[in-house]
TrEMBL record:
Residues 11-126 form the Tetrahydrofolate dehydrogenase/cyclohydrolase catalytic domain. InterPro entries: Aminoacid_DH-like_N_sf (IPR046346), NAD(P)-bd_dom_sf (IPR036291), THF_DH/CycHdrlase (IPR000672), THF_DH/CycHdrlase_cat_dom (IPR020630), THF_DH/CycHdrlase_CS (IPR020867), THF_DH/CycHdrlase_NAD-bd_dom (IPR020631). It comes from Brevundimonas goettingensis. This is Bifunctional protein FolD. HAMAP family: THF_DHG_CYH. GO terms for biological process: L-histidine biosynthetic process; methionine biosynthetic process; purine nucleotide biosynthetic process; tetrahydrofolate interconversion. Its EC number is 1.5.1.5, 3.5.4.9. GO terms for molecular function: methenyltetrahydrofolate cyclohydrolase activity; methylenetetrahydrofolate dehydrogenase (NADP+) activity. Pfam families: THF_DHG_CYH, THF_DHG_CYH_C. Gene3D superfamilies: Leucine Dehydrogenase, chain A, domain 1 (3.40.50.10860), NAD(P)-binding Rossmann-like Domain (3.40.50.720). Keywords: Amino-acid biosynthesis, Histidine biosynthesis, Hydrolase, Methionine biosynthesis, Multifunctional enzyme, NADP, One-carbon metabolism, Oxidoreductase, Purine biosynthesis.
Length: 307
């Protein structure tokens, strides 16, 4: 089979995310009608990072389209940590705001751990607060990080029951790798977290029924690292020069994942594309978390957002 003869099923994260957003929109409308509550999300961005500006604009648009309140706080690059913490304190105290998100990365000089841990854990719709990491680890209800949450939704939709499957996660970040491991453990998978220092990474990956790539290295995971029929979740979003040398010389770029897609798709059973796989689930899950936070703040039982 030629390298680009894809035979894996393509997991359409864009379509799944659109369905989830529809369900969140309907649930939020009922929350307003039945309880007079409009979910409110505050997004804080510091500095001018161009990619972050786009993500934040998209979050604002999606939030308003879902019928929620959206406040965006754009702070200059020169903002001090104390000023940012003061804004977070105000948002923590604002009863109309149920979700607070500080866009990452933050400028050098601001300690993101201190900032994220200043957010009220019940408003921490990113699920990055240490209290939410702890809740996830011990199986208590909390806020679950959006990218891992969306990835598990895609896996359950693709495979049904995940019990007993071997899951290998490549990447040990606090915002993807570690919470992904907790979520897959909760689904009764046998979980391995591998990383750049793991010995014989290809051999570890070849054991995976479910392979989650979250390393941030363009196309690092090759086709011969993949067990035939495995399900691949590619969390990577890497901007690289265009494949067309003329366009590349003009500075044009394209987005690729952490997995060499064509090679992997020739071996895997199912795979998320980049773009259009896990990425769209991140914002859809952010809206879902904001809806759930608004329900909890008003002692309302959230409706199921399952498909
Ligand atoms: N506070 C947070 N900061 C950041 C997060 C986060 O979840 N919380 N994640 C990323 C950025 N991000 C959202 O903020 C994000 C990135 C990418 C996508 C997405 O849908 N990507 C598209 C491709 C986009 C492209 O072509 O450039 C896709 O995969 O289809 C959504 C959200 C870092 N910061």
């Amino acid at each position: 089979m030629a390298e680009n003869d894809a035979r894996a099923r393509i997991i359409d994260g864009k379509a799944f995310a659109a369905g989830l957003v529809e369900r969140v929109t309907a649930a939020s409308a009922s929350l307003k009608t039945d309880h007079g509550v409009i979910p409110g999300l505050a997004v804080v961005i510091v500095g001018e990072d161009p990619a972050s500006q786009i993500y934040v604009r998209n979050k604002g648009e999606r939030t308003r389209e879902a019928g929620m309140r959206s406040d965006t706080h754009r702070l200059p690059e020169t903002t001090t940590q104390a000023e940012l913490l003061a804004l977070i304190a105000d948002l923590n105290a604002d009863d109309g705001i149920h979700g607070i998100l500080v866009q990452l990365p933050l400028p050098a000089g601001i300690d993101s751990t201190v900032v994220l841990d200043a957010i009220d854990p019940d408003k921490d719709v990113d699920g990055f607060h240490v209290v939410n990491a702890g809740r996830l680890a011990v199986g208590l209800p909390g806020m679950v990080p959006c990218t891992p949450l969306g990835s598990v939704m895609l896996l359950k939709d693709a495979l049904g029951d995940l019990s007993g499957l071997n899951a290998v996660i490549v990447g040990r970040s606090n915002i993807v790798g570690k919470p992904m491991a907790q979520l897959l453990l909760a689904q009764n998978c046998t979980v391995t977290i591998a990383h750049s220092r793991s010995h014989d990474l290809p051999a570890i990956c070849r054991e995976a029924d479910i392979l989650v790539a979250a390393v941030g290295r363009p196309e690092m995971i090759k086709g011969d690292w993949i067990k035939p029929g495995a399900t691949i979740i590619d969390v990577g979003i890497n901007r690289v020069p265009s494949a067309d040398p003329v366009k590349a010389a003009e500075g044009k770029t394209r987005v690729v994942g952490d997995v060499a897609f064509a090679q992997a798709a020739a071996v895997a059973g199912a795979i998320t594309p980049v773009p259009g796989g896990v990425g769209p689930m991140t914002i859809a899950c952010l809206l879902a978390n904001t809806y759930v936070a608004a329900c909890r703040a008003n002692s309302v039982t959230p409706v199921s957002l399952d498909a």
